[in-house]
Amino acid sequence: MSGSTSQAQMAKKAAIEHHVEAFLSMLAHERKASPHTVRAYERELHDFAGFVVTKLGAKFAVGRIEHQHIRAYLGELYGRGLSKASVARALAAIRSWFKWLARQGMVEQSPAALVATPKLPKHLPRVPTIEEMNRVVESAADEAAAWPERDRVIFELLYGCGIRNAELVGIDLGDIHWANEAILVRGKGRKERYVPLGDAAAQALRAYLPVREKKLNEAGKSTAALLLNLRLRGDGRLTARSVGRIVKHIALAHGLAADVHPHTLRHAFGTHMLEEGADLRSIQELLGHERLSTTQRYTQLTVGQVAEVYDRTHPRAK
């Protein structure tokens, strides 16, 4: 390959990458997307941009990309052994990018809109029963916990309030509104909402806060973060990854399935509220779902449970 051809490819790649970087910057600063979301888009779009340069040539402009090219890229992903879910995530990122490019006038229309999403099997989340959740939450501060008071708070807020892991670790002391019995949480896109602070969660917090303060005083540190990591590393704030490890460790110690993670507790919150008679719109508000259709996934769980009872008990079902 000649030096001039190599330079041309480098220049073209830089141009395509510029479009990607501009989109990522918009996500981070205008839409206020979470760092996790931005990293996911960054990974998918840089890979696609690399495919465009490698397979389609240095002079291939972004406006000339057609749906056949995107299908070819998805075919390459399958060739790498990626699952349908992974390919669907890549396509979703590409669609969002082209939709933005179209709004910016950089392409006439999105070629990704003509590419069908891979059909995915509908896996409903496995949700522990109310009895199982009560047992685990009430035992969260026993010998399985590294920091019993803190870990009880983690379970009480994830299951008792139905908040996301990222929302949990983002809570500051000032976000707890004791007088109103509510907690301010910041959801996707940094949208704020209040969730009720139940009696059990409030009790867990009151047991944890003096221990938290003592630990900070002994270390000569201060932080606004509610949940602290054990050794007060960095700014002291507990990370979402650490919460995942804590939840799995305690859940496994009390007989829950190995696939339990913080979002399982959120699903359990919504499912159990629905089972106990809460209406979908109230649950939607509490969970911070933008669309009711997202909340309606919980009805599929309860319908399945009703069907199981029917099959087991009705004489005509046997």
Instruction: List low-confidence stretches.
Output: 1-12
Q: Provide the gyration radius in Å.
A: 24 Å
Number of strands: 3
Helicity range of the residues?
Answer: 55-70%
Q: How is the main sheet built?
A: 3 strands, antiparallel
| Nearest-integer average pLDDT | 84
CA-to-CA gap between the ends?
A: 72 Å
Query: Helix count, per DSSP?
Result: 13
Global outline: globular
Structural class: mainly alpha
Helix and strand element order: HHHHHHHEEEHHHHHH
Percent in strands: under 5%
User: Which strand order do you get reading across the main beta sheet?
Assistant: 1-2-3
How does this model look, in words?
The chain is mostly helical. Helix content is 59%, strand content 4%. It is built from 13 helices and three strands. It has a three-stranded antiparallel β-sheet, with no helix packed on it. A hairpin with a 4-residue loop joins β1 and β2.
Q: Which helices and strands occur, and which strands form pairs?
A:
Elements lengths: L2 H27 L5 H22 L10 H13 L4 H20 L26 H9 L9 H14 L3 H5 L6 E2 L4 E5 L5 E5 L2 H21 L20 H14 L8 H14 L4 H8 L4 H4 L1 H17 L5
Antiparallel strand pairs: 1-2, 2-3
Helix pairs in contact: 1-2, 2-4, 3-4, 5-6, 6-8, 6-10, 10-13
